[in-house]
Amino acid sequence: MSEYHIGDAIKGFLHKSQLRNGIRALQVEEIWEELMGKTIARYTDKIQIINQKLFIKTSVGPLRQELLYQKEQIIQRVNEAFGEKVVNEVVIQ
Fold it and tell me: Does 63 map to a domain?
């Protein structure tokens, strides 16, 4: 029987399980301010990742418009932060 480090075992489990998406959703909330800046983070109401779609909810009209123009940049920043393709579409609500 081979030996595994607990960290490697957890990573392997998460990679194969459905929990991975939920954890990614929590992680994106934690790093949102780093990725987009304090002002955007302050006026963003909710962030979710569902089926490789990043849902961003804001009630500020001008911010919504700005985010619409930055969709590709947002996808790149999020994927770079995770080191893999986590998001392939952004939905602004």
Answer: yes
d(CA 62, CA 20): 33
Is it the case that residue 39 has pLDDT exceeding 80? yes
Closest CA to 83 of 36, 37, 15: 15
Q: Say if 74 falls within a structural domain.
A: yes
Nearest Cα to Cα of residue 27 among 67, 90, 91, 82: 82
Residues 59, 79, 83, CA angle at the centre, nearest 5°? 145
Instruction: Identify the CATH number of the domain in which residue 46 sits.
Output: 3.30.300.20
Q: What is the DSSP string of 10-32?
A: HHHHHHHSTHHHHHHHHHHHHHH
Counting the structural domains of the chain, the total is 1
On whether residue 7 sits in a domain, the answer given is no
83's CB contacts (< 8 A; 6+ apart) are none
| pTM, rounded to two decimals | 0.74
